[in-house]
Amino acid sequence: MLAPKVIVVEDEEIIALDITSRLLKLGYHVLETTNSSEGVLEKVAERNPNIVLINVGLAGEMNGVQVADIIQNSFQVPVIFLTNCSEKPQLSKKQLREPFSYILKPFAERDLHVAIEMALYKHKIEKRLQEEKQKLRAIVNSMGSGVIITDTNSRIQTINPVAEALTGWHKNEAFGKDLMQVLNLVNQDTGKVIENLVKQVIEIDAVMPIPDNCILIAKNGTKIPIGDSIAPVRDRNGNITGTVLVFQDITQRKQTEAQLLQNAFYDALTKLPNRVLFQDRLRLAIERSKRRSNYRFAVLFLDLDGFKGINDRFGHRTGDDLLVAVSRRLESCFRSGDIVARYGGDEFAILLDEIKDVSEATSVANRIQDTISTPLHLNEQEIFISASIGIALNSNEYDQPENLLQNADTAMYRAKKHGKASYAVFSFE
Questions:
Q1: Distance CA 259, CA 265 (A)
Q2: What range does the domain containing 242 cover?
């Protein structure tokens, strides 16, 4: 193992020779011995010592303390001050409190050896910690998610570039500020401010997901949906020392989820609810009728008359345009609580919510007939269309949506047999 390399800066020749002799005896490699601050920095740069011993009271343009600061900060080389009691006040309180940062003259050989070894060991540990911090910083900065680290009082310690971009706050601006000031979060549905996440995660003492429907209001007012989690940070003893919040822009994910929801529950052509969503709403209506004796609803099943002939004559494009146009007309016939769905092909299903009696259902059926019968102009063609409608009212007989729909369908076929462009009400008789 190579002997540690030392540069000695001491203006008292006898002391300098004594120190050099002791260092050689202890097994150190003395690179240079100089009696002034002039040229010391060049020597440190050229010789790359492991440690520098420097007299506090050096004469010259810079004193020993000033030279030592440059050596430590610019070259990352540890320094031990050589001082006597009269020179000791030149050291700062921090330097005086720092273990093994100085040694009082005259000193014993053992004290010199201990001071050097401890200073070298301390420098080694600090260097390792610094490397770990740099590695951690590099990892945090390279993450694709925003990262904010706070202390236990919600004060920001660091944020990475992604967090800077999302929040609009620069790292230097954000440092020391309260998390809620930089990460302004509100609930998308209610608009209410989301309370301090640091306080919450410390209270539950566990990793916590960012609340659903969370919107980040950036510094410039931009609203960004975000998601992920916040976790407590612990020291070696398991004590919480702060938190780390990881978050990302989930705009794309929200759009994907919305598209998946659209695909699952809505018809791609007409944008109306599909069979799956309609049956689910119908099931809820049946459950509600079991709990409320005065609750009434009706199902209308509608089939376009002569749609196949129109499709064959004018082509599928016109047929599709016709379905879309009829869908928009059907939507205009209902209240906000009702639901109209494309059930399949040219069939539509309607749920009339909260009706008093069958007369309301038949009134809606007449309104549909009047609305649909108005000629449509599609692709330079005037098209006339009508519909046959079956009506089924809820009763204690129904337990499943399929049964109610089947009876509405049966009534619809009865209407077709009576000449189309009409409606029929299902009866168990």
A1: 10
A2: 143-254
Q: How far apart are CA 240 and CA 208, in angstroms?
A: 15
pLDDT value, residue 61 = 73
421 and 280 in one domain?
yes
Task: Tell me the torsion sign for CA atoms 8, 111, 21, 120.
Answer: negative
Residue 232, preceding bond cis, omega within 30 degrees? no
Asked if the model's pLDDT at residue 51 lies above 60, the reply is yes
Which one from 267, 321, 346, 409 is the annotated catalytic residue?
A: 346
Query: For 288-337, how does the pLDDT look when each residue is reduced to its tens digit (9 = 90+)?
Result: 988 888 889 999 999 999 999 998 888 889 999 999 999 999 999 988 88
Tell me how far CA of residue 265 lies from CA of 87, 275, 342, 347, 420, in angstroms: 83, 8, 11, 16, 30
Angle, in degrees to the nearest 10, between helices 251-265 and 275-291: 80
Looking at the fold, whether 244 and 324 belong to one and the same domain comes out as no
423 has pLDDT over 90: yes
Does the annotation count 346 as an active-site position?
yes
The rounded distance, in Å, linking the Cα atoms of 345 and 234 is 61
pTM of the model: 0.54
Domain CATH for 201: 3.30.450.20
Question: Which two three-digit tokens encode residue 411?
Answer: 């009534």
* pLDDT for residue 401: 87
